[in-house]
Amino acid sequence: MFNYLDELYELSGCKASDFADKFKIIMLSNSVVYVSGFLKILSYSDELIVLKVKSDELNIEGKKMNIKSLDKEEIIIKGNITKFFLSKGENSEK
Questions:
Q1: Which regions of the chain does DSSP assign to beta strands (E)?
Q2: pTM surpassing 0.85?
């Protein structure tokens, strides 16, 4: 059976174990983002969602965004996603 994560790791030259303690992002076109390994939602609006990931913050920007699925460490966001980036938050743990 095809496992797309194994294929991505192979293409990147990395091992799955290299990412074991990190979060993962999968983006499907510009309309769906899947994030696993986040710690909490810091901010939520239809144009900006900020997630706490380890010592950083994952900022997801777009239009008409909403949370389609939410679990303890996994989230699926749907909308017109324009960009995402990591930043150091003002409340970063030291």
A1: 24-28, 32-36, 40-44, 48-53, 56-70, 74-87
A2: no
